Automatic annotation (TrEMBL), chain A:
Lineage of source species: Bacteria, Pseudomonadati, Pseudomonadota, Alphaproteobacteria, Hyphomicrobiales
Annotated ranges, domain OmpR/PhoB-type: 124-218
SMART domains: REC (SM00448), Trans_reg_C (SM00862)
Source organism: Hansschlegelia zhihuaiae
4-aspartylphosphate PTM sites in chain numbering: 51
InterPro entries for the chain: CheY-like_superfamily (IPR011006), OmpR/PhoB-type_DNA-bd (IPR001867), Sig_transdc_resp-reg_receiver (IPR001789), WalR-like (IPR039420), WH-like_DNA-bd_sf (IPR036388)
Recorded GO MF terms: phosphorelay response regulator activity; transcription cis-regulatory region binding
Entry protein name: Response regulator transcription factor
UniProtKB/TrEMBL annotation, chain B:
Sequence ranges assigned to domain HAMP in this UniProt record: 175-227
Organism: Hansschlegelia zhihuaiae
Coarse class of the protein's main subcellular location: membrane
Keyword Chaperone: no
Cellular component, GO, one term: plasma membrane
Keyword Iron tagged: no
Span of domain Histidine kinase: 235-446
Protein name: histidine kinase
C-alpha cells in the first residue's frame, strides 16, 4: 500500500513515515500544498494523509482542487482543528475520513487501510485468492488456514497482485508499492520476490505476461 | 442630585422662578418711580388748578366764619387727594371732604412730606401772594405703596399659577427626552456577554448619539480583541497538538518496533521533540505573561553591554556567529524595565544569530540619532512583503517554513516585550548587503550615552 503523507511538522512527518511503514505501508512524505499537488499529479497513491494547516495554504483547498479535478484518491484529513464543524467542513470538502491530533498510530493505519480498500472497490478487510488469504492489518498470510510465512516485501508484492485480481500489474507499479521516492530500487528486486512467492505458492500462482507484468494465475 | 431629570427639573424651575422674581423686582422699582412721578405731577396740577380757581374767584379766598368751606372732590382717584386752602394767617379757608383738619404742611411752595394723624403724606403747596392764600394738595404715601403692590401682585399671581404648570411640562418633556436612553439601557441589560452587535441609535436625539457611537466603538474593539484571542488560541492549539501527535506517534513506534535501530531513533526523536515542545510552551507562557501585564514595570538603568550579555546567557546556544557592539553601543545606557528588555533582546539575538552564517557577526549599534537600538545580522534577510508580518504570532517566514523549525513566536514575543519597554520594533532589510535589521525605537531619553560607563 502506497501512502502520501502531507504534514509540515518534521517530527510528526518522520513518525508517520516510520510508523505507517511498520504497519506495512510505503510512505512518501511532503510538507506543503504545492509538493502534495505535484506528487499527486505524477504518482498514484492508495491513500493520502493530509494535514489541514500547511505553511503555504490550507489542506482543505488542496482537497477541493483534487476533487474538482476528478481525483478519486482516498484522502484522510489529519488536523489539530477537531471541532465538529471542522470535521463536517473537511468531510463535505471531499475527505473520506477525518482524524484529530493527537491520534493513535494504529487507528490511523486502520483508517488508511479502510479508505484504501474502499477506494479499490473492496469492502472485505482481507484479500483472498483461491485458498490463500492476506490480512493487511496484521500483515499475515495463510494458505488453507495454515500460516504462510512471508517477508515484508513478499507480502507487499503479493497484496499488490491480489488487490487487482485478473488485472496485470506492471513491474513499475509493483516497484511503486515497494519503494518510496527516497529508497533506491534494486534492479531485479521484483523478479526475486516473485520467484520466492512462486516457490511458496506454486509456479502457476503468478503468471508472467511478457512485456507487461504479472498477474495472479486464473488457470484451474 | 444624581437624577438628570431631577437636576434638570430643579435647575429649570429655579431659573424660571428667579427670572420671574427679578422681573418683579425690576418692575416694582420702575413702577414705583413712575407712580411717584405721575402722582406728583397730579398733585402739582391739582394744586395749581385750585389756586387758579381761587384766583378767578370761583373759590372762597377768605375764611368764612365758622366751619371752613368744603371743596368739591378733586381728581379721579376716589377722593384720595386731599386739598386745603389756608390763609397766610393760618386759618383754614376751605378743605375737600375727607381732608384732615390739621395743616398738611408748614413749608413754603413745593413738595414736602409729613406725618399727619399718624399717616405719612406727600404734599404740594402753591402760594398766591395776591389773595394771601396757600393751596395744599396731598395724598397718603400708603396709597401709593398700595398701588405699586397691586401692580406687583398682578404680576406674581399668574407666575404662581404658571410655574407649577411649567414644572409639569418640563418634567414630562425631560422624561420623554431621556426615553431613548432607557431603551438603550434595557436593550443592553437584556444582552448576554457574547452579544457584541452594535446598538441601534434608532430615534435617539443627537445628544445621546455620541454615547451610542462610543458604545458601538467599544463593542467593535472588544470584538476584535476577542477574535484575535480566539485566533491565537486556535493557533496555539494547533501548534501544541501537532508536536503532541508527533510525540505520541514516535512513542508508539518505539513501543512497537522490533528492530533496536528503529526504536532508538524514535526515542531520540522523542527527546528532541520534548525539548522543542517545552520551548514552545515557555514561549507561549512568556507571551501570556506579557499580555497579562497590564502596566509597565518600573524602569531600571542598565548598560547596553550588560543587557546584551545577560540576554545572551539566557539564549539557546548558538553556532559560531558572534555579537559585536559598536563604539557608541558600548557606552550606551538604557532606561527600561529589566525583564521585558532582556526578553526582547534575547529573542532578537536568538533570531539574528540563528540566521547569521558561521563566523558571521551580529552587530549591535545605536541608530536614528541616538533614539534607536539596532541589531543587524548577516543572514538572508526577509522578503519585503513579509517584513511587517514577522512579529505576527505563529507567522513563520517562507525560509522557516521549508525547515519546519520554530513556532513563529520569537519575534512576536520580542515585539510584545518591546511594547512593555515603551519601545517599538521595526524590521528592515539591510541595504549594504543581505541581512535583517531589527530597529528598536525608544522614547527620547531612554537611551543615554554615558562615556563614564565605558570605563
Amino acid at each position: 500500500m502506497r501512502v502520501l503523507v502531507v504534514e509540515d511538522d518534521p517530527l510528526l512527518l518522520d513518525g508517520l513515515r516510520v510508523g505507517l511503514g511498520l504497519a506495512g505501508a510505503t510512505c512518501d512524505v511532503v510538507s506543503s500544498c504545492g509538493d502534495a499537488e505535484a506528487a499527486l499529479a505524477t504518482s498514484t497513491f492508495d491513500a493520502v494523509v493530509l494535514d489541514r494547516m500547511l505553511p503555504d495554504g490550507s489542506g482543505l483547498d488542496v482537497l477541493k482542487r483534487l476533487r474538482a479535478g476528478g481525483d478519486l484518491t482516498p484522502i484522510l484529513l489529519l488536523t489539530a482543528l477537531d471541532e465538529t464543524s471542522d470535521r463536517i467542513d473537511g468531510l463535505d470538502a471531499g475527505a473520506d475520513d477525518y482524524l484529530g491530533k493527537p491520534f493513535d498510530l494504529e487507528e490511523l493505519a486502520a483508517r488508511i487501510r479502510a479508505i484504501a480498500r474502499r477506494g479499490a472497490g473492496r469492502a472485505s478487510a482481507t484479500l483472498a485468492w483461491r485458498d490463500v488469504t492476506l490480512d493487511p492489518a496484521t500483515m499475515t498470510a495463510a494458505r488453507g488456514g495454515a500460516p504462510l510465512p512471508l517477508s515484508r516485501r513478499e507480502f507487499a508484492v503479493l497484496s499488490a497482485l491480489m488487490e487487482r485480481r485478473g488485472a496485470i500489474a506492471s513491474r513499475a507499479q509493483i516497484e511503486d508499492r515497494l519503494y518510496g521516492w527516497q529508497e533506491e530500487i534494486e534492479s531485479n528486486a521484483v523478479e526475486v520476490h516473485v520467484h520466492h512467492l512462486r516457490a511458496k505458492l506454486g509456479r502457476e500462482a503468478i503468471e508472467t505476461v511478457r512485456g507487461l507484468g504479472y498477474r495472479m494465475g486464473d488457470g484451474a | 442630585m444624581r437624577s438628570l431629570r431631577v437636576r434638570l427639573f430643579a435647575t429649570l424651575i429655579a431659573a424660571t422662578g428667579a427670572l420671574w422674581l427679578i422681573a418683579a423686582a425690576w418692575i416694582y422699582v420702575g413702577a414705583r418711580q413712575e407712580v411717584e412721578h405721575v402722582l406728583d405731577t397730579r398733585l402739582q396740577e391739582a394744586a395749581r388748578m385750585v389756586a387758579s380757581l381761587v384766583a378767578s374767584g370761583d373759590m372762597p379766598a377768605k375764611p368764612k366764619a365758622g366751619a371752613p368751606a368744603t371743596l368739591p372732590a378733586l381728581g379721579g382717584y376716589e377722593r384720595q387727594l386731599s386739598c386745603q386752602i389756608w390763609s397766610f394767617d393760618d386759618r383754614l379757608v376751605a378743605r375737600s371732604s375727607g381732608a384732615p383738619d390739621q395743616k398738611l404742611t408748614d413749608g413754603g411752595s413745593g413738595f414736602s412730606e409729613r406725618v399727619v394723624n399718624g399717616e405719612p403724606w406727600r404734599v404740594f403747596a402753591v402760594e398766591d401772594e395776591a389773595k394771601g392764600i396757600r393751596v395744599l394738595v396731598g395724598d397718603r404715601l400708603g396709597l401709593r405703596e398700595q398701588l405699586v403692590a397691586d401692580l406687583i401682585k398682578g404680576l406674581l399671581w399668574p407666575a404662581a399659577l404658571i410655574l407649577p404648570l411649567l414644572g409639569l411640562l418640563i418634567w414630562i418633556s425631560v422624561g420623554r427626552g431621556l426615553k431613548p436612553l432607557d431603551r438603550i439601557a434595557r436593550e443592553l441589560g437584556r444582552r448576554d456577554a457574547e452579544d457584541m452587535r452594535p446598538v441601534d441609535p434608532g430615534t435617539a436625539p443627537s445628544e445621546i448619539r455620541p454615547l451610542t457611537v462610543a458604545l458601538n466603538d467599544l463593542f467593535h474593539k472588544v470584538e476584535r480583541a476577542r477574535r484575535h484571542e480566539r485566533d491565537v488560541t486556535a493557533f496555539a492549539a494547533h501548534e501544541l497538538r501537532t508536536p503532541l501527535a508527533g510525540l505520541k506517534t514516535q512513542a508508539q513506534i518505539a513501543a512497537a518496533a522490533k528492530e533496536p535501530a528503529i526504536r532508538d531513533r524514535a526515542l531520540k526523536q522523542i527527546l528532541s521533540a520534548v525539548d522543542r515542545t517545552s520551548r514552545l510552551v515557555s514561549q507561549l507562557l512568556a507571551l501570556a505573561r506579557l499580555d497579562a501585564e497590564a502596566s509597565r514595570a518600573a524602569p531600571e538603568t542598565i548598560t547596553l553591554r550588560a543587557a546584551i550579555q545577560d540576554a545572551l546567557e539566557l539564549s539557546r546556544p548558538a553556532g559560531s556567529a558572534r555579537v559585536e557592539l559598536t563604539a557608541d553601543a558600548r557606552v550606551a545606557t538604557l532606561r527600561a524595565p529589566r525583564e521585558p528588555l532582556l526578553l526582547m533582546l534575547r529573542n532578537l539575538l536568538e533570531n539574528a544569530l540563528e540566521h547569521t552564517p558561521p563566523q558571521g557577526v551580529v552587530t549591535c549599534r545605536i541608530g536614528s540619532g541616538g533614539a534607536a537600538l539596532e541589531l543587524v545580522d548577516e543572514g538572508p534577510g526577509a522578503p519585503e512583503e513579509e517584513l511587517h508580518r514577522l512579529t505576527q504570532r505563529f507567522f513563520r517566514g517562507s525560509a522557516k517554513v521549508a525547515t519546519g523549525e520554530g513556532a513563529g513566536l520569537g519575534l512576536a514575543i520580542a515585539a510584545a516585550a518591546a511594547e512593555r519597554c515603551g519601545a517599538r520594533l521595526v524590521f528592515e532589510n539591510r541595504t549594504d548587503r543581505p541581512g535583517l535589521l531589527a530597529r528598536i525605537v525608544f522614547d527620547p531619553g531612554q537611551i543615554v550615552m554615558e562615556p563614564a560607563a565605558a570605563a
